[in-house]
């Protein structure tokens, strides 16, 4: 049986030896990944330092990416930011996620009921990425947006997504996470076990400030995959003054019911 995430985490050294692997294309994506919410503007030197590439190599890559619209260049500063072509590239992916429009009404209702954002997420390599978010009018300190990322090990959404993988896939993912941060994996074992037990029993799990001390996350796995990743849905509420009984006895079960209903409409749930 083929491992569905076999090539996703192959080391670059192994990939470079494969004749099918286009190194220049990979380097272009390496450049794009340097831009984050905290580093939205970068120059060639900063990119070269971050990637260990030569300045001439980075200059050729950024010139190409600007020419194709994936980077924009500021003539005054000679620095770059991500370009609008990336949005055009990602739109077909989002447009074909039928779960986004199928769940829209339910997400809005739950967001209004919880007075907080409700999001759909999936795994992007070793992190959570949001593919849909609905916000209540009130601001509760959490404003996840489409494309924003969260850690797998310290969020309810991350735990729900890990639960949705097969045991073999989960073992491999945890091994890769341990390679990156063995201390974090060790520190997360107890909370991960508790989340898995809660999901098995109640259909959802709760994270009490593991990622941000001011927030509580409630998440449930969805029995539906996009590529190699299952999906999850979460709610975020403020930790201050939170009624934990309401979170566990009302909000979590309501999320679980939403997911089971959605799975039936997607044709992957039990009748």
Structure description:
It is a single chain. With 271 residues, the chain is α+β, with helices and mostly antiparallel strands. It has 2 domains: 12-86, Winged helix-like DNA-binding domain superfamily/Winged helix DNA-binding domain (Arc Repressor Mutant, subunit A); 97-266, Beta-Lactamase, CATH 3.30.450. It has 10 helices and 8 strands. The chain has helices spanning 12-16, 23-33, 44-51, 55-67, 85-95, 98-114, 156-164, 167-180, 182-202, 244-266, and strands spanning 71-74, 79-82, 118-124, 127-134, 149-151, 205-208, 215-226, 229-238. The chain has a 6-stranded antiparallel β-sheet, sandwiched between helices. A hairpin with a 2-residue loop joins strand 3 and strand 4. Helix 2 crosses helix 4, helix 3 (44-51) crosses helix 4 and helix 7 (156-164) crosses helix 9 (182-202). The longest helix has 23 residues, at 244-266. The two termini are 29 Å apart. The model has no long low-confidence stretch (mean pLDDT 89).
């Amino acid at each position: 049986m083929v491992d569905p995430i076999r090539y996703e985490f192959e080391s670059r050294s192994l990939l470079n030896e494969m004749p099918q692997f286009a190194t220049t294309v990979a380097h272009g994506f390496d450049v794009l990944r340097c831009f984050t919410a905290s580093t939205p503007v970068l120059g060639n030197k900063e990119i070269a330092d971050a990637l260990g590439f030569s300045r001439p190599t980075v200059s050729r890559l950024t010139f190409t990416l600007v020419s194709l619209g994936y980077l924009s260049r500021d003539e005054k500063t000679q620095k770059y930011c991500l370009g609008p072509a990336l949005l055009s590239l990602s739109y077909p992916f989002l447009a074909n996620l039928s779960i986004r429009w199928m769940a829209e009404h339910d997400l809005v209702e739950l967001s209004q009921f919880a007075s907080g954002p409700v999001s759909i997420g999936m795994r992007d390599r070793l992190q959570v990425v949001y593919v849909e978010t609905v916000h209540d009018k009130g601001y509760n300190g959490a404003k996840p947006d489409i494309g924003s990322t969260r850690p797998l090990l310290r969020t309810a959404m991350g735990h729900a997504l890990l639960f949705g993988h097969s045991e073999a896939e989960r073992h491999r993912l945890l091994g890769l996470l341990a390679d990156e941060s063995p201390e974090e994996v060790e520190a997360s074992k107890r909370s991960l076990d508790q989340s898995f037990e809660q999901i098995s029993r109640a259909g959802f799990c709760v994270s009490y400030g593991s990622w941000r001390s001011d927030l509580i996350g409630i998440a449930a796995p969805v029995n539906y995959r996009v590529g190699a990743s299952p999906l999850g849905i979460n709610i975020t509420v403020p930790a201050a003054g939170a009624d934990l009984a309401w979170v566990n006895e009302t909000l979590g079960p309501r999320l679980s019911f939403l997911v089971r209903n959605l799975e039936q409409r997607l044709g992957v749930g039990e009748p």
